[in-house]
Write a structure and sequence with these properties.
alpha/beta, ion transport, 2 domains, Rossmann fold, ABC_transporter-like_ATP-bd, 28% strand
């Protein structure tokens, strides 16, 4: 496993600050979900944690060390990122896409190996794509395509996986398929998973740890039952709701009333 944290992180785009002195320590071996309204800084935080954005102030620490001081390949062997809208090269097969995840483990002296081949095969099996491995990525359904990208991250074989809205634009069946896959990676393979989700009820069902972001800062964090309350939802989303216990999963279930409801 590997630790990942942010300490007084401030950064943004051009001259507009998005995150403001944000501090956060993500629990190892757990599923953490970032929630918050559009524009609050969730995706920016994920990019900062993955070293895609340079902080104006503060630092991101990977295994206790400033992530900017670590070699690029060392970071890529520890942390993988699935962005919001990944685009595959035209004509690439599922197997070829998954194989791209092995690049951090290669060098001029150590090219494609039997170990790389095993990692790709295991990633295809774990994500249920072994029968589709020779198909072109663009021919897959939305859920299958998302699994292919996750399989690439699995083949990268990092203890930390960051995913930005992995269920976006998927129907409910494919959303569940992707989230169940991530749970299995966490429970069976011990991956620490950090993801952004918009659906509060799915976040509560699948998260061990929820981080609520508001205006570029951590507004609340902890177990779903502690974070997702009527008062907090109103503070974070300016939305009136009722929060009850899900009768099947015993997690918070948010029933929205709308902004104008009493």
């Amino acid at each position: 496993m590997a630790t990942l944290s942010a300490n007084r992180l401030t950064l943004g785009y051009q001259r507009q600050a998005i995150l403001r002195e944000l501090s956060l320590e993500l629990p190892e071996g757990r599923i953490s979900v970032l929630v918050g309204s559009n524009g609050c800084g969730k995706s920016t935080l994920l990019k900062a944690l993955a070293r895609l954005l340079t902080p104006w102030q503060g630092q991101v620490a990977l295994e206790g060390e400033d992530i900017r001081q670590r070699p690029t390949k060392a970071v890529a062997r520890t942390l993988s990122l699935l962005p919001q809208h990944p685009v595959a090269p035209e004509g690439i097969s599922v197997r070829q896409l998954v194989g791209l995840g092995r690049h951090p483990h290669q060098s001029w002296l150590a090219q494609w190996s039997e170990g790389d081949e095993r990692a790709v095969e295991q990633a295809l099996l774990r994500t249920g794509l072994d029968d589709l491995s020779e198909q072109r990525v663009e021919t897959l359904s939305g859920g299958q395509r998302q699994r292919a990208w996750i399989a690439m991250a699995v083949a990268q074989d990092t203890p930390l996986m960051l995913l930005d809205e992995p269920t976006s634009f998927l129907d409910l069946t494919h959303q569940m398929e992707v989230l169940e896959l991530l749970v299995s990676l966490n429970r069976d393979a011990g991956k620490t998973i950090v993801m952004v989700l918009h659906d509060l009820n799915l976040a509560c069902r699948y998260a061990d740890h929820i981080v609520a972001i508001r205006e570029g800062r951590v507004h609340a964090q902890g177990r779903p039952q502690a974070v997702i309350t009527r008062e907090r939802v109103k503070e974070i989303f300016q939305l009136e709701c009722r929060v009850i216990e899900d009768p099947f999963f015993h997690t918070p279930l948010c029933i929205p009333f709308g902004k104008g409801a009493a």
